[in-house]
Amino acid sequence: MKNYLFLFLFGFITCGTAQSPFQEEVEALVAKNDSLWDANRETILFTGSSSIRFWKDLQQRFPQHQILNSGFGGSQTHDLLYHLEPLVLKYRPKKVFIYEGDNDIAAMKRPKEIIATGQKVITNIHTLLPDTQIVWISAKPSIARWKWKRRYKRLNRKFQKLASKNPKLQFADVWNVMLEGRRVRRDIFIEDGLHMNSKGYQLWYQQIKPFIP
Fold it and tell me: SGNH hydrolase-type esterase domain: which residues (predicted)?
């Protein structure tokens, strides 16, 4: 019955959707994670856009756990929804950390639309994996996208409110720790002003660590 339910849901997700521009990257990610994954161990999975993709030392940060990274650069929330089965569901993770919404705002999507798609991601995970805990990581501030800070803050408030109503959904705030006063810190980014350096990831680690006992 569960297999039929999955086929129905996955068909609903992909129905009428054109070929994803991330198809090759996703296939490469799946091949890599398949080679690392031990199905007999509990899995903690990180997914989302490039801020997750470039977090190269996740396994080293949490050596007592089996960590998989399925971040794919440039993705938006609807891309994760499309690729949810190969990137997340197949590994039956105990906990999933999701970072999406950053690129959605840059693509001029409204927070309400992003939340609606995020809710579909959450619902599909919990329909097939009802015991999986989801941690939604807040959108981060950045030098490159600081002009949209109000939209990001609005999106974060909405995701935080969503998490307050769902006992299987938590919200990890990385926004405030990346600020210096009312401005974004400049020493935690690489040259593009968007992606983080090691200092930035250290801040993220401090915020994420309490969610992985």
Answer: 55-203
The domain segmentation of the chain, as residue ranges, is: 2-211
Residue 108: its H or E element: none
Query: What is the CB-side half-sphere exposure of residue 61 using CA atoms within 13 A?
Result: 23
Element (H, E) at 23: helix 23-36
CB count in 10 Å sphere of residue 208: 20
> Distance of CA 142 to CAs 85, 100, 111, 174, 195, Å?
30, 15, 18, 11, 8
Per-residue pLDDT tens digits for 146-185:
999 999 999 999 999 999 999 999 999 999 999 999 999 9
pTM confidence score: 0.91
Instruction: Please check whether the domain covering 2-211 is classified as CATH 3.30.450.40.
Output: no
Alpha-carbon gap, residue 72 to 80, rounded angstroms: 9
